[in-house]
Amino acid sequence: MNAPYTLTKNSPLDHRNTFRVAVRTAWLAEIHDPQSLPEVLAGSEVNGRPLMVLGEGSNVLFTRDFHGLVLAMSNRGIEVLDDDGETMHVRVAAGEDWHGLVRWSLAQGLCGLENLSLIPGTVGAAPIQNIGAYGAELAETLETVEAYDRQAKNFVRLSRAQCEFSYRQSVFKQQPERWIITTVELRLRRHAPLKLDYAGVREELTTMKVTTPTVADVSEAVCHLRRRKLPDPAVIGNAGSFFKNPIVSNGEAEELQAVHPGLPVFNAPDGKKLSAAWLIEQCGWKGFREGDAGVSDKHALVLVNHGQATGAQIWSLAQRIRDSVQGKFGIRLEPEPRII
User: Fold this and answer.
1) What are the per-10-residue average pLDDT scores of the chain (340 residues)?
2) Can you point out the beta strands (E) in 135-207?
3) Number of domain units in the chain
4) CATH number, domain containing residue 111
5) What per-residue confidence (pLDDT) applies to 1?
6) Would you list the DSSP string of 242-260?
7) Exposed, middle or buried, 70 (CB in 10 Å: 0-12/13-18/19+)?
8) Is 38 in a helix, a strand, or coil?
9) DSSP letters of 93-149?
10) How far is CA 134 from each of CA 38, 50, 131, 220, rounded to the nearest angstrom?
11) Angle made by CA atoms 298, 129, 135, in degrees to the nearest 5
């Protein structure tokens, strides 16, 4: 039987963040059994030190070494809690690979995750920023999150409402040192309307010569789009979209479109969502490179590490991009990854 957890001192993290930034952590704890969390957190390695929960590092930028404890959830397992023929209630360990879960759901004939195909990272990381892509969000299928509450020092179950989900936001992101997600429960349906209206999805299905798409077809189309538009972190270091698409009021959107007629604008619950990629590209950053820090020539929203860039260099570039967009459009972009 595997040990419930392992502790490593002065551990490298270059293969634990998709930017491939060469940093180290004072301590690394790999958790195989979530029940061991109280013991790990009571250890001297944590006492007085900052703690960070890290999945595959696909949504983080380290600008320096981490002088605390990095905690990696390595528990595995997908369990069917109930299945009434129309919906399936599924419990998934935090350490499972996200796209692996998507593939599993498709094999069961389930709907709901197909538009979230090929998003890098672990299942436990997914609720933190309420992952979303191609017109879908995790919050639409998530039922419950199980987590260890460091403040109350016990395990808790949080409903969808208690997770306080919004666009790329959650209670877990608001209080990153409080919550350690251990499992996620989803409710997936066998029959649901497909989400095809996001830019590029219908066109890709047409290219695939699919006239009556299934969930598997939508997943394949999304994978094609992602592979074509976004650089592969296994080939060049990156964390996907670096900035959130900004949300503005209807009036602000109309004013901006009047001055910049080509600006893409999408409906959002609290106003209008603008294309951050378009804003950045209009400022001339697409394909920019300074040393090994740069902007992808495939997608202006993706910052990349061409090899030996430090996190500080990438963050410096991100701040310059943010300032130029604000100067030209009056819009302040917010980073999507967590900046350490």
Assistant:
1) 88 95 96 96 86 91 96 96 96 97 97 95 94 94 97 96 93 92 97 91 95 96 92 91 94 92 88 94 97 96 97 98 97 94
2) 136-137, 142-149, 154-159, 179-189
3) 3
4) 3.30.465.10
5) 54
6) -BPPPEE-HHHHHHHHHH-
7) buried
8) helix
9) ETTSBHHHHHHHHHHTT-BSSGGGTT--SBGGGTTTTT-EETTEEGGGTEEEEEEEE
10) 38, 35, 11, 13
11) 60
Considering the domain architecture, whether residues 18 and 88 belong to the same structural domain is answered as no
Among candidate residues 159, 189, 219, the one where a domain is terminated: 189
Active site amino acids: 168, 241, 336
- Asked if residues 178 and 148 have their Cβ atoms less than 8 Å apart, the reply is no
Given a contact cutoff of 8 angstroms between Cβ atoms, the answer to whether 5 and 49 are in contact is no
- Measured CA to CA, the distance from residue 288 to residue 299 in angstroms comes to 11
One domain, residues 51 and 83: no
Q: Are residues 97 and 183 both part of a single domain? A: yes
Give the position of tokens 């993706």: 302
**pLDDT value, residue 176:** 86
CA-based nearest residue to 181, from 150, 212, 217, 145: 145
* 3-state class (DSSP) for residue 30: strand
- pLDDT for residue 9: 95
Q: Tokens 């949300």 label which residue?
A: 247
User: CA–CA separation, 297 vs 117, rounded Å?
Assistant: 23
Domain range enclosing 100: 78-189
Structure tokens at 212: 């009556």
Q: Nearest CA to 335 among 245, 247, 273, 242?
A: 242
